[in-house]
Structure formats: C-alpha cells, structure tokens
Amino acid sequence: MAYLALDLGAGSGRAIVGIIEDGKIKLDEIHRFANSPVKLGDTLYWDFLSLYANIKEGIRLAVKKGYNLKGIAVDTWGVDFGLIDKSGKLLGNPVCYRDLRTEGMSEKSSAYISKEELYAITGIQQMEINSLFQLLSLKVCKDQTLSVADKLLFTPDLINFFLTGIACNEYTIASTSQLLNAQTRQWDEKIFEKLNLPSHLMSNIVHPCSLIGKLNTEIAEETGALDAKVFAVGSHDTASAIAAIPTQGDNWAFLSSGTWSLLGVLTNEPILAREVMLNDFTNEGGVDNKILFMRNITGLWLLQRLIAEWEKDENPNCSYDYLLSECEKSKPFRSIVNSDDPSFTHPVSMSKAIQAYCERTGQHVPQSKGEFVRCVLESLAVKYYFVMDKLQKSTGKDIKQLFVVGGGSQNELLNQYIANILNMDVIVGLTESTAIGNVIQQAIANNEIADWEEGHKIIRNSFTLKTYKAQNFDDWINVISKTKHLFE
Fold first, then answer.
1. Per residue in 129-155, pLDDT tens?
2. Which end of the chain is less crowded, N or C, counting CB atoms within 10 A of the terminal residue's CB?
3. Is the separation of the CB atoms in 191 and 113 below 8 Å?
C-alpha cells in the first residue's frame, strides 16, 4: 500500500510516498517546495496559501505517478498556529515563530504564573517562541482576530482541517505549545485561567497512529486521491523522526540535527525536577506514549545563515563539498562559540555576529569561509558535549551510542567531531527519518503492520546504518576545559 508523508520544515517541504512491500519500506520523493516566511509590515508571516497549494500539488503528483494512496499524514515544525472562525475561515496567515511579537511575553507571564510552576505543569523549556507566548502576545495587543476566533490549530492541524473538515489538535505538536499538562497529556485549565487565555480555542487531543478522517470530496476529486484517508501521526516532525530509530536497549540517545538540534532520550514519563528546568531540558510528546526528554539547541542555523550571506557575493562557491574541504584545511580549535548566545538569534550579518563574539571572548576572529565553517562545526560538537553531560546526570542513564537523524546526519565532518568529543559511537543512516516514521505510523493506523516492533524490523531491513568511531579524544579534552565558561 502507498502512503503519502507531507513533511514540512521551516525552510522547505516535501511530499514523499512510502510503500511497504516484502518486509521493507521504499521512499519516493514526489514534490519539493520552498517554505519561506514573508515580512509584511512589521510582521513575519508564513505563506500558508502557498504551502497548502503545494500540499495539494504533492497529492496530485503522487496520484499522477500511479500511486493509489491509502493514507496521507502531515508533520511540521512546532509551536506555530493559525486561527479559524466559526465558519471555518482562516483568520490571516499564521505568524512565524521568529517574529518579534513575543519579546517580553515570558516576563509578563511571570507576574501571573512563575516559570517554576509552568515547568512543573508542562515540563516544557521556557522559550519565547512557544505557542503560549504567541497567544499571550495576541491577548496583550488586543488583536481583533482573537475575539472572533473559534479554533486554534497548530500548523499540521490546520492543514488536516482543510483536507478533511475535522478540527483536532494532535498530541505531539500540542505538547510544544507549553499549554499542555505533561502528566495528564491534556490541556491545562490552570494555565489558561491564570493568564486569562481563551481555552475554548483548543480542540480535542488525538494521538499518533489514529484516523482523523477521509480526504474531503472536493480535494479528493481535485487531486484524484479518491480512496485516501488522513491519519494523525507524530505531527511534530521531531517526534516522527525519533520514532523511526530502530534501536534496542536503553543506553542510547538521539540527536535530531538540522536548523535546530534536539539532543535527548526517550522516557516513559516526564522528568519535572527543578534542576532539569534550570538546565533547559524539555519534555515533549513522543510517539507510542513516549516522552522526548531533550534540550533544544540552536544547530546548523549559524551555517545556513553564513551560506545565505556568502551566496550574495559575486562569485560564490558555497557547495557543501567545497566548504567542508576548506574547513578541513583550517587550523582546529581556534574559535568556539555558544550557538545559543542571543547574538545569533536575529543577526543582520551572521559572519559579523560570530566575529564580534570571538573578539569579545578573546579568541581568534574567523576570516575565511573555512575558518567560519570550522568554528560552527567544532562549536556544535562542544555544545553537544556539555548538554550530553547534563543529560546523563539528569536521567541517570549511561549512554553508549548517539543516533543522529535529520539533514545534519549527512555532514560527515560534524558526525566525526561529535563521535570524537563524546568518545562514543555515532550512528547515522536515516536521513529521511521523519518521512519513514510518518509512513510507518500510517501503516500501523491502517492495520497493515501490527506495531512498532514490526515497524522497526522493517526499518532495519530497509536501510544501511553507518557508525562513526571516536578518534583523537585526547585532542578535544583541552578544548573542553578551555571553553567550559562559554557554555555555563
């Protein structure tokens, strides 16, 4: 049977068909499209109309290629949402989490509910991009759309609504909002009451591997997907990506490596101690009743912005092969930055922001492309070391392996740096882990496969995994001691 995974990232989207045959899964990318926020006036919006048009085009192209789609499921980045009115109309384009409307909202909320109390309820790292603070900003600014809104739907929920006509909030994406009770896994009324937020906007929680409904007649006829059902999967892309990891035992951690890095472990229950809150760990909803206990880290965002900057040059050479080659030619361990430093969040120039940081901290100031790339990759590896140390202390786990998924898993140099500094095996091989997890969940929901045990067996049969072994660990020990103060 054929299932369509609609995988939307904060920079691009893909429509990928997954077919399960003879105990293996095969993927076929049907459609790829850009997803770029648009600045209009003082607000940074997502172009939802373009996204939705591309989603329909992905469905149409899959059918045109001959696939008889039995299922469709959407996964996206977290926290962002759209509002619809009682007639089902969208009340404006959803706002991008990088918009500045949430500045100061965390501090405002603390007058009504403390950071400690919020964490004890939600288990979510307090970041001003979170849905809670986006919603609070609408309340504080007396945004008129809030007064006429009937439903708040997170990005994948919003897409599902326009595909099926059914409004619901999927659990894993809802968990990113900081409005969900981590233990009951339902909306927490206390938060809504204390911040005077409209709880009536929230819909019923649905869980991964369940049916939302049939594709509505108009879309089915427009695209030709006459038999397709729309399923709920881990619609936060990280949840689906981590669910696809076919590991066994309890001595492994995951790293979802992309614009954001998410480093953590799977647990059965949230960890809500004050100490883990102070270390900025978060408890997000996972697939199969798991919790993703992890730390959000600014990841390859720095490198992506550098490349965007360099591409404006007259004769840019910004291919990854070239940049990594230049990186290897550069001297090691000269410039280490903390990627989570606020100066890297919205810089006008990423190169100047990195140079200013290095000058401020008394380090070599990068000049060449190779030096900048080496700085970013080594800095990420060092950051992972300090977060991994806190992760093991917080969970009591003795972690022996790190499984890296996402686009960053293709960066061989970064993978080797991570293995070196962590002094452990780093395993890669599921570049399309989100789509794989999405398709397996649809197959479970459609009763084609029995459960995750069978799903992981199919994944192991389908993909070749590669292990990076630690090398030159002693070379990194001095870096760790010299840069510790940057990460405290």
1. 999 999 999 999 999 999 999 999 999
2. C
3. yes
Residues of the chain where predicted confidence (pLDDT) is lower than 50: none
Looking at residue 469, the DSSP 8-state letter turns out to be: P
CB-CB contact of 439 with 80 (8 Å): no
Shortest CA distance to 398 belongs to which of 387, 388, 408? 388
- The pLDDT of residue 316 is 84
Q: Strand pairing partners for 401?
A: 252, 425
The residues, ordered by sequence, that sit 6+ positions from 137 with a Cβ below 8 Å of its Cβ are 101, 102, 105, 143
Q: List the beta strands (DSSP E) in 409-472.
A: 425-428, 466-468
CB 369, CB 321: distance < 8 Å:
no
**How are the residues of the chain apportioned to helix, strand and coil, as percentages rounded to the nearest 5?**
45, 20, 35
pLDDT in tens, 321-361: 999 999 999 999 999 999 999 999 889 999 999 999 999 99
Structural tokens at position 328? 């290897």
Is residue 311 packed enough to be buried (19+ CB in 10 Å), middle (13-18) or exposed (0-12)? exposed
Length of the chain: 488
Q: What is the dihedral of CA 434, 437, 439, 445, to 10 degrees?
A: -140
Do residues 419 and 396 lie in contact, with contact meaning Cβ atoms separated by under 8 Å?
no
Q: Rounded to 5 degrees, what angle do the CA atoms 190, 173, 450 make?
A: 120
Nearest to 151 by CA among 184, 215, 210, 199: 199
| pLDDT for the residue 315 | 73
Q: Report d(CA 252, CA 219) in Å as an integer.
A: 42
Q: What is the identity of the amino acid at 226?
A: L
SS3 at position 267: strand
3-state class of 268 per DSSP? Answer: coil
* Distance (Å) of CA 4 to CA 29, 44, 245, 335, 439: 10, 30, 20, 44, 7
Name the packing angle between helices 412-422 and 473-483 (round to 10°): 80
In a 13 Å sphere around the CA of 391, the CA atoms on its Cβ side amount to 29
Q: CA-to-CA distance for 411 and 374, rounded, in angstroms? A: 12
Residues classed as catalytic: 237
The residue assigned the tokens 């202390």 is 393
Per-residue DSSP letter, 432: T
What are the φ and ψ backbone dihedral angles of 230, each rounded to 5 degrees?
-105, 120
| CA nearest neighbour of 439 among 457, 453, 459 | 459
Report yes or no: 136 and 205 within 8 Å, Cβ to Cβ. Answer: no
- Residue-level pLDDT at 378: 98
Pairing of strands 169-170, 205-206: parallel
Residue whose C-alpha is closest to residue 301's, from 421, 422, 383, 417: 383
Nearest to residue 406, comparing CAs of 232, 240, 170? 240
Angstrom CA distances, 175 to 122, 186, 207, 467, stand at 8, 9, 11, 32
